Structures are given as C-alpha cells and as structure tokens.
C-alpha cells in the first residue's frame, strides 16, 4: 500500500464528518423551527441557523476532531476561536448569496442549505486542519 494512503488522517476526517453531520442536524432543526413554526423570514433564519451551527461545530471540533492539538496558551485559544469564526463568517456570507438565489427560484430552503454546506465542507476541513488547529511545538 502506498505511504500516502497509510498516512491519510482517516480518523480525523471521520470525526470531522461526524461533527459536520451533527452540525447539519442542528442547522436543519433551527432553520426548520424558525421557518415552519415561528414563521421567520427564510433569509434571517439562515443567519440564525448559521450561528448555531458554527458554535456547535467549533465546540465539537475543538473537543473531538482536533483534541490532540492542545492550545499552548490562552492567547492561542483566542487565536483559534477567532480564526475559526472568521473563516466561517466568510463562508456563510459567500453561501448566503447562493442560498438566497436558490430559494428565490423555489428550491426548498433545506435543500438550498444542504447545497451550501456541501460546497464549503472541503474548505472548512483544510482551513481548520492547517490554520485554526495547527500544531505548534510546546515551549
């Protein structure tokens, strides 16, 4: 078996996927509850569900997916939180345009949200792995 396949981070990718699935469930529950039960505007509901899912994903990513990469200081913890959220705000803003477009042409809002999540999954993994939760040698 080639060395590249042996060194692939299967466990980390698997836990990232599991966190993502639970984040999608949080997203769908919030979005569905806001739109179908509280009759919130779909665009406003999109932003509220995004915040809920981002917080959920950060906590689980920190505690599970990248639990082996501990923060070296309180400052590093703040850096991680800031970088994680900055990257997610960027993807939410980019996705919102697509979401609004899809909803405006009568794509169901949950399907539109799924398309948006799918388009950002690879970016979120690699940015989290290489930037947010990167390993630093302990001093």
Question: Can you tag this structure with a few keywords?
Answer:
139 residues; mainly alpha; 5 helices; 80% helix
Tell me what you see in this structure:
It is built from five helices and no strands. It is mainly α and 139 residues long. The protein has one domain (9-132). Helix 2 (10-37) packs antiparallel against helix 5. It is elongated, with a radius of gyration of 17 Å. The termini are far apart.
Tell me briefly what this model is.
The protein has 139 residues and is mainly α.
Biggest β-sheet strands, sense, barrel: none
- Helix vs. strand class: mainly alpha
Mean pLDDT: 89
Total beta strand runs? 0
Number of continuous helical runs: 5
Work out the strand percent. Answer: under 5%
N→C terminal distance: 36 Å
Uncertain parts: none
Write the topology of this structure.
Layout: H1 3-6, H2 10-37, H3 42-65, H4 74-104, H5 109-132
Helix pairs in contact: 2-3, 2-5, 3-4, 4-5
């Amino acid at each position: 078996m080639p060395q590249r396949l042996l060194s692939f981070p299967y466990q980390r990718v698997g836990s990232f996927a599991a966190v993502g699935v639970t984040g999608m469930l949080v997203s769908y529950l919030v979005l569905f509850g806001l739109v179908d039960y509280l009759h919130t505007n779909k665009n406003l509901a999109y932003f509220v569900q995004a915040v809920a899912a981002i917080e959920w994903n950060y906590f689980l990513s920190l505690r599970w997916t990248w639990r082996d990469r501990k923060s070296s200081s309180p400052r590093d913890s703040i850096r991680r939180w800031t970088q994680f959220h900055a990257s997610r705000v960027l993807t939410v803003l980019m996705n919102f345009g697509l979401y609004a477009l899809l909803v405006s042409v009568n794509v169901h809002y949950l399907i539109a949200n799924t398309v948006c999540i799918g388009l950002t999954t690879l970016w979120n993994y690699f940015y989290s792995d290489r930037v947010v939760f990167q390993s630093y040698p302990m001093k």
